[in-house]
Amino acid sequence: MTDQSPPEKPPQAQPRLGEIGLSNYAPYLMNRIMGRYNASLRDEMASLGLTTPKMRVLAVLSVIEGPLIRELAVFSVVEQSTLSRALDQLATDGLVRREADTADSRATRVFITDAGRTAFETLWPRMAEAHTRMFRGIPDDERRAFVGTLQKMLTNIRKHEI
Amino acid sequence: MTDQSPPEKPPQAQPRLGEIGLSNYAPYLMNRIMGRYNASLRDEMASLGLTTPKMRVLAVLSVIEGPLIRELAVFSVVEQSTLSRALDQLATDGLVRREADTADSRATRVFITDAGRTAFETLWPRMAEAHTRMFRGIPDDERRAFVGTLQKMLTNIRKHEI
DNA sequence: CAGGGATATTTGCAAATGCATCTAAACCTG
DNA sequence: CAGGTTTAGATGCATTTGCAAATATCCCTG
């Protein structure tokens, strides 16, 4: 099953997807896994009036204090215009608060409110559950290695971003 | 504020997201990474008239021969109704072909056409590039371990699906 | 083998999405 | 320090999305 590392690899010869196989192709696997992770949150989110972008915003804001909207877009992996509207709704619902940046009057910082924190805390057990489930039976050191690899990957693909 | 008695931690004592930190939380990292992976394909997809769902469909069909639509939805991680419409467009563009299942007349199988294969082959180098980039500097054995963990995770979260 | 329930796919419709564009403010550079 | 350029964020608009319901077929039980 495991190919012993081939002695030499031609610089550019990219194997086809069919040769790799879907179930050996990391992006495919990651999509499948994240698809189910998100699906497992959907009901709980819906009952809180949240969409995936709104949930991600709350998650990020629960950890990062008062980012600029542009930064929040990166962290939460949500398109700027989508984010702008998501923030409208979250603000209307009293879950976040926009605040003009003191230094740059073009910029806006976003803060989570107590109600926002409460909403996220309602959701969190479900996220933790999905997380627990996905790592079920995977030993701690393997988990750590996995997360370590993810961190390297994020560094690799990050442009020159945050 | 009414900070109702900050009670003991919930039964299983799930740490909070803030305690874990975004950059140690696998689903967050995976989202970030996949977000960029998808973004890196966007231009090429657009120039081929493809959206993410349509691209995924072609990718899966390049590997799996004639799945049922319902199976294709799972493999490609696309909502059924979205998939149904994506297939309309792909068929109109001559990239896939729907074919009634011989055994079950409710069911439909989907096949990629030569034009579809060509379209996907145009896209593939970009996908391979993004893939190469994300694993840059990560040794082979670490990659294999990573993919192995992903496979376990997929098994964990899969319902009783395909 | 009829009738009720399950399954496969499509479709109606309201909401969400994202590109392109707009406004406003900041930053340069000569 | 004026004029062009960049940056932050919001918005118009056409498209896409996804839930719920519709349609068609199949399967099982009595």
Topology, pairings included?
Two copies of one chain form a homodimer.
Chain A: H1 17-20, H2 26-47, H3 52-61, H4 69-76, H5 80-92, E1 96-100, E2 108-112, H6 114-134, H7 140-157
Antiparallel strand pairs in A: 1-2
The first copy, chain A, binds a DNA duplex (30 and 30 nucleotides) through helix 5.
Can you tell me about this structure?
Two copies of one chain form a homodimer. Chain A is mainly α and 162 residues long. Chain A is 59% helix and 6% strand. The first copy, chain A, has seven helices and two strands. In chain A, strands 1-2 form a two-stranded antiparallel ribbon. In chain A, helix 2 crosses helix 6 and helix 3 packs across helix 4. The first copy, chain A, starts with 16 loop residues before the first helix and ends in a 5-residue tail after the last helix. At the A-B interface, helix 2, helix 3, helix 6 and helix 7 of A face helix 2, helix 3, helix 6 and helix 7 of B. Chain A binds a DNA duplex (30 and 30 nucleotides) through helix 5.
